[in-house]
Design brief:
The complex is a heterodimer of chains A (about 280) and B (about 260).
Chain A: H1 12-16, E1 19-32, E2 35-48, E3 52-56, H2 63-71, E4 78-83, E5 86-87, E6 95-98, H3 110-116, H4 128-141, H5 157-169, E7 175-179, H6 187-204, E8 207-212, H7 215-221, E9 224-229, E10 234-240, H8 252-272
Parallel strand pairs in A: 3-8, 3-9, 6-7, 7-8
Antiparallel strand pairs in A: 1-2, 1-4, 4-5, 9-10
Helix pairs in contact in A: 3-4, 3-5, 4-5, 7-8
Chain B: H1 5-30, H2 41-53, H3 57-88, H4 90-105, H5 111-119, H6 123-147, H7 151-159, H8 167-175, H9 177-202, H10 207-216, H11 220-252
Helix pairs in contact in B: 2-11, 3-4, 3-6, 3-9, 3-10, 4-6, 5-6, 6-9, 9-10, 9-11, 10-11
Classes of the chains: A alpha/beta (about 280), B mainly alpha (about 260).
Chain lengths: ~280, ~260
């Protein structure tokens, strides 16, 4: 790994578990109108099975670009991304992305949204009843089983995001990618969703990579927080959060941890703009 | 559900139409134009009633509707398919869009002469006019609807593992449905124009034929009556069928704020 990346040693679990996702010298350069904009300097990252890794950094630091490349929406300019040793080439349900907005299909009922991705999964092809059973199981997990037959537009924002989570879990992705989860929801609903997400995590042992610019969210959700610096993006630090789960976003310990995470970026600011702050 | 401004307007609209009929009646009473050329509302209504009880009206409406059902189904099918190709391929879109926009500037009645030459006085000729009148509107609205699909839906579909061959039916067409319905609505109206225009010159049954008959017999009451009937019929379908469907879809697709 990048020698200056790790400020706190990784947990024993992360060190011994098998590597699920591996990024090797991944870079991204955008070209627009003859201008080359370097979005990401070479990134090395390993994500172990069952680990929740949060990519944290200011907006424009390339963390979302990195997530898009893992999902297969964008291609790295150089370097390689592998999932269980297989190179990533295109989007697919083994690296399923959960978006900022729920992105549910309005032409389908709640249950049909959840079964949608199963249609092309081995073991579920041409087996609608099995798909439905799996979907109901997941709707129970997010406590929405009584809304299975509702059209999507009748649900509240928080409920839609929970359906989106159930839909994303249905094809049993090897890695779940989460792009700034739940920013459009009010604080109360968000706190509840964090708790639920962690609860589901503990139960399903999903490997998750998520992106955020909110240090509290990073502290509340992550096993490991990767701190990114601004343009061009690179890994500035790597922190392990060892608070017990489920974590409450309003817990002082989470807040303290969030402070440490946020501090990483302040130091960065002091370096780039010397003498402006103490 | 909703408070009453809608209802209040409804009352005003009713008064407006009553006033319009009163104005018509007043103009008639002034006798500026001889009454065989400019009949009163009552005469028109009576003529419509006569046509109805003579068994002329219902078969004509049926005939026109049936032609529309057949012709427009074909037009909508071809339009959807063409629109899908236009929405998915930039080159096809570039080529066909200007052609279809051009065709749309043509008045629907202008298809009647060529139809007469090609198909003579046959039923197929009327279908031809209906199809040519409505095809372009459906195709353009479908392709525009596809081009306006929020990219998020396409990204979601891809990350959920949708294979390329399943995209048109599972995602692209349903996501474009609000635009498609608007196109179907417009296409139906244009097809309706085309159907009546075609019947004017080459038919022995239908609303257009009754208009033609009225002119032949110098029966202004019949001409005006059929015109009013055609308007009412079109309005009924537009307001109470297509507009309802459109509203429901737009609400469901989150394009309207929920009431």
């Amino acid at each position: 790994m990048d020698p200056n990346a790790s400020s706190i040693p990784a947990t024993a679990r992360a060190a011994t578990a098998t590597v699920k996702l591996r990024l090797t010298r991944v870079t991204k350069v955008f070209e627009s109108g003859g201008q080359r904009v370097e979005a990401l300097q070479p990134i090395d990252l390993e994500v172990s099975e069952g680990e929740f890794v949060v990519l944290f950094g200011p907006s424009g630091c390339g963390k979302s670009t990195l997530l898009n490349m893992i999902a297969g929406f964008e291609e790295p300019t150089s370097g390689e991304i592998t999932l269980e040793g297989q190179p990533v080439t295109e989007p697919g349900s083994d690296r399923l992305m959960l978006f900022q907005e729920h992105a549910l299909f309005p032409w389908l009922r709640v249950i049909d949204n959840v079964t949608y991705g199963l249609r092309w999964e081995p073991g579920y092809r041409f087996r609608p009843r099995r798909r439905r059973e799996k979907a109901m199981e997941l709707l129970r997990l997010v406590h929405l089983e009584e809304f299975a037959k509702s059209p999507v537009h009748e649900l509240s924002g928080g409920m839609k995001q929970r359906v989106a989570l159930a839909r994303a879990l249905a094809p049993d992705p090897k890695v779940l990618l989460v792009d700034e989860p739940f920013p459009a929801l009010d604080a109360l609903v968000r706190a509840k969703l964090y708790t639920e997400l962690q609860d589901i995590l503990v139960r399903t042992r999903k490997t998750i990579v998520s992106v955020t610019h909110d240090p509290r969210e990073a502290a509340c959700l992550g096993d490991r927080v990767i701190v990114f610096t601004g343009r061009p993006g690179s890994i500035k630090a790597e922190l392990t959060v060892e608070l017990p789960r489920p974590r409450d976003i309003n817990d002082p310990k989470v807040a303290e941890c969030a402070g440490i995470i946020a501090k990483q970026l302040e130091e960065e600011n002091n370096e780039t703009i010397p003498g402006e702050k103490i | 559900m909703r408070p009453s401004p809608e209802k209040k307007y409804r009352g005003i609209v009713l008064v407006f139409y009553l006033a319009l009929i009163a104005l018509w009646q007043t103009l008639f009473s002034l006798q500026l134009i001889p009454d065989y050329l400019f009949p009163s509302p009552l005469q028109v209504a009576r003529r419509l009633w006569e046509l109805g009880s003579d068994g002329m009206l219902w078969p004509s409406m049926q005939a026109t509707l049936l032609r529309m059902a057949v012709g427009f189904s074909i037009a909508a099918g071809i339009g959807l398919l063409t629109g899908l190709l236009m929405g998915m391929s930039r080159i096809v879109n570039r080529c066909l869009k200007s052609l279809f926009l051009g065709l749309q500037t043509l008045p629907t009645a202008a298809w009647a002469p060529i139809s007469l030459l090609l198909f003579g006085l046959s039923e197929r000729g009327i279908y031809f006019v209906i199809i040519m009148s409505s095809l372009a509107a459906v195709a353009i609205a479908t392709s525009d609807g596809i081009l306006q699909i929020p990219p998020l839906y396409l990204r979601a579909a891809r990350t959920l593992g949708t294979p390329g061959y399943a995209m048109p039916l599972r995602v692209i067409l349903p996501a474009a449905l609000p635009g498609i319905v608007t196109g179907i609505k417009l296409g139906w109206t244009l097809g309706w124009h085309g159907a009546v225009s075609a019947e004017l010159i080459k038919s022995s049954v239908g609303l257009g034929y009754l208009l033609y008959m009225g002119r032949e017999l110098n029966d202004a009451a019949q001409v005006l009556g059929i015109m009013v009937l055609t308007i009412l019929f079109g309005l009924l379908l537009d307001r109470f069928l297509f507009a309802q469907i459109e509203h429901r879809i737009r609400r469901r697709w989150g394009l309207l704020q929920a009431a």
